[in-house]
Write a structure and sequence with these properties.
Elements: H1 2-19, E1 30-38, E2 42-47, E3 52-54, E4 64-66, E5 70-75, E6 79-84, E7 90-98, E8 102-109, E9 116-119, E10 124-127, E11 135-141
Antiparallel strand pairs: 1-7, 1-9, 2-6, 2-8, 3-7, 4-7, 5-6, 8-11, 9-10
């Protein structure tokens, strides 16, 4: 009986200590800048995880240049789609907000003889497979720890 009471008293003393230990805070969302280039007549980039495309933060700007002009250009929080007038070079910079340092993407292009690449300060992913309307899953490292 004394052992049971001693154990109960010891348990009562240690439970508040265990409960008071700090828990890991959720990672803070960070905005990263990406560079994008393609020579395809259409391209799409879709985010597969909880990150989103965002507007440029204060002091930064987004830009798109297209050698022969764009026919359409759409940005939603999860997907970017662009269609150029002809198969010609298109460059742009993008901003993405994420809690993670790896961004899961699906990169699609419309012409088998074209390429599409997207890069961050740490890595680059290129879709240059020779298949029409091919979508390739990629993981882009945004920042090293």
């Amino acid at each position: 009986m004394i052992k049971v009471l001693a154990f109960a008293a010891l348990s009562a003393l240690t439970l508040p200590v265990i409960a008071a230990q700090p828990t890991a805070a959720p990672a803070e969302e960070t905005v990263y800048e990406l560079e994008f280039e393609t020579d395809s007549n259409w391209t799409s980039i879709e985010i597969r995880d909880d990150a989103v495309f965002v507007n440029a933060p204060a002091g930064e700007s987004m830009s798109v240049t297209a050698k022969d002009g764009l026919r359409s250009y759409t940005i939603s929080p999860k997907k970017i789609y662009l269609r150029s007038r002809t198969k010609g070079l298109v460059n742009m910079n993008l901003f993405v907000k994420s809690r993670n340092n790896v961004l899961g993407l699906t990169i699609c292009k419309g012409s088998p003889s074209s390429y599409t690449w997207i890069k961050s300060g740490q890595s680059k992913q290129k879709n240059d497979l020779k298949e029409k309307d091919h979508c390739e899953q990629a993981a882009l490292v945004l920042q090293l720890f």
